[in-house]
């Protein structure tokens, strides 16, 4: 039973969104699609321990869920030609290899980003349904309480059902009003894959790769949208570092310690070409293109010391003007620390802290700890690292913060025990 549960957990993380998307296309109802998928998972949990796990588990779950939908229609006397056709298709599809339909997933993103929903609800629903994230993980990403996320998701589903929103991509002329939301959720899904907010793994590659794939599909549909190209550029460049960001035992390797020869340089080139494509459209760099330009500065540098930090500070300045926010400002502070020193950066960070920004996030104390350590204010730095460890949800990153605190404590003890010179 335990093996089956682990298999189902892994299956759902990797294929859950595609299964729901396929069912939503069939039923036209997102809520019903999720319910059918969950019922099929329950069947799997009961049957697989005795019968064995099917060779193609994703296809099995989808087929069982489709049968349940047809059974429900039969019970409600909706036996019509559509049902017979779906049943025929089901027989044919179960005999074929499992081939996820990419367009279904993108259609699911567009449905979840319908303008009848608030931006917060769009993001929460997409992360839940497409990203497969738990409400606790979404709450950490959005910096809001878990109960708030739960309420947003429930309300979003009810709103979509009440408005009878069809499960379909909008007409091309309506894409614009949904595009910024679609880009935002794709980026958030990628961000969760790049640095998991919870769990034992620092990176969730399947999630990041899925976001990158969706971005590429979207760029194919909208080749003249500079922000789509900018987002793809950003994700390509960031993903190029995956292999160098974790050790064999899964421990994080910080940027300064990464073996840059292990970066995927062909992927970096793809990202740079996408950024050139965004620039060629001559609309000026937006939120994603500016971040891609910052990522490019890191990608082309041979070391942290040889990085063009002055240019990064300028790019963050532009980003702060375009899309001000505490996370962007905190990242600018890190860049400032490399050009003007930790004192100047600490003033920026302390100003954020005085405003109460990022109070529930590990981001601010982790940066403040680094700056204080560089200034030799070790006891304060230790306190900040321990605070960051208590706030972060990812076990690997928590271990990194605790190790930094222990290292500083050890060094401080050594200095105290050293005889005066």
From TrEMBL:
Using the record's annotation, list all stretches that form the DUF6596 domain. Answer: 178-278
**Positions of the RNA polymerase sigma-70 region domain:** 17-78
Q: Does the keyword Glycoprotein apply?
A: no
Alphabetized UniProt keyword annotations: DNA-binding, Sigma factor, Transcription, Transcription regulation
InterPro entries for this protein: DUF6596 (IPR046531), RNA_pol_sigma-70_dom (IPR014284), RNA_pol_sigma70_ECF_CS (IPR000838), RNA_pol_sigma70_r2 (IPR007627), RNA_pol_sigma70_r4_t2 (IPR013249), RNA_pol_sigma_r2 (IPR013325), RNA_pol_sigma_r3/r4-like (IPR013324), WH-like_DNA-bd_sf (IPR036388)
Top-level taxonomic group: Bacteria
Q: Where is the RNA polymerase sigma factor 70 region 4 type domain?
A: 110-160
Q: Which family does it belong to?
A: Belongs to the sigma-70 factor family. ECF subfamily.
UniProt-listed PANTHER family:
BLL6612 PROTEIN, BLL6612 PROTEIN-RELATED
Protein name listed in UniProt? RNA polymerase sigma factor
């Amino acid at each position: 039973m335990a093996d089956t549960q682990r298999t189902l957990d892994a299956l759902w993380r990797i294929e859950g969104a595609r299964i729901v998307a396929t069912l939503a296309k069939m039923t036209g109802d997102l809520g019903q699609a999720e319910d059918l998928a969950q019922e099929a998972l329950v069947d799997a949990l009961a049957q697989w321990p005795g019968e064995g796990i099917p060779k193609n588990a994703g296809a099995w779950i989808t087929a069982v869920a489709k049968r349940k939908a047809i059974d429900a229609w039969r019970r409600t006397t909706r036996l019509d030609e559509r049902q017979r056709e779906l049943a025929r298709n089901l027989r044919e599809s179960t005999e074929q290899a499992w081939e996820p339909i990419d367009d279904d997933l993108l259609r699911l993103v567009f449905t979840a980003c319908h303008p009848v929903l608030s931006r917060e609800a769009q993001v929460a629903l997409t992360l839940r349904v497409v990203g497969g994230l738990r409400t606790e993980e979404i709450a950490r990403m959005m910096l809001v309480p878990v109960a708030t996320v739960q309420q947003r998701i429930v309300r979003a589903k009810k709103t979509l059902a009440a408005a009878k929103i069809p499960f379909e991509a909008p007409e091309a002329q309506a894409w614009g009003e949904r595009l910024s939301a679609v880009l935002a959720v794709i980026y958030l899904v990628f961000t969760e894959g790049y640095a998991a907010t919870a769990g034992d793994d620092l990176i969730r590659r399947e999630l990041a790769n899925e976001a990158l794939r969706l971005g590429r599909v979207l760029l194919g549909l909208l080749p003249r949208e500079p922000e789509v190209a900018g987002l793809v550029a950003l994700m390509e460049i960031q993903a190029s570092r995956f292999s160098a960001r974790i050790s064999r035992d899964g421990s994080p390797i910080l940027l300064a310690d990464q073996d840059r020869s292990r970066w995927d340089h062909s992927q970096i080139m793809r990202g740079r070409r996408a950024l050139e494509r965004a620039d060629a459209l001559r609309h000026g760099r937006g939120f994603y293109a500016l971040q891609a330009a910052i990522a490019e500065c890191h990608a082309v540098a041979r070391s942290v010391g040889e990085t063009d930090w002055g240019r990064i500070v300028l790019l963050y300045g532009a980003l702060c003007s375009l899309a001000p926010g505490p996370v962007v400002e905190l990242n600018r502070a890190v860049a400032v620390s490399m050009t003007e020193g930790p004192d100047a950066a600490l003033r920026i960070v302390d100003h954020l802290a005085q405003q109460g920004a990022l109070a529930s996030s590990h981001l601010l104390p982790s940066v403040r700890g680094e700056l204080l350590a560089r200034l030799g204010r070790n006891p304060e730095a230790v306190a900040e690292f321990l605070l960051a460890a208590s706030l972060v949800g990812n076990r690997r990153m928590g271990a990194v913060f605790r190790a930094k605190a222990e290292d500083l404590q050890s060094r401080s003890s050594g200095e105290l025990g050293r005889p005066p010179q």
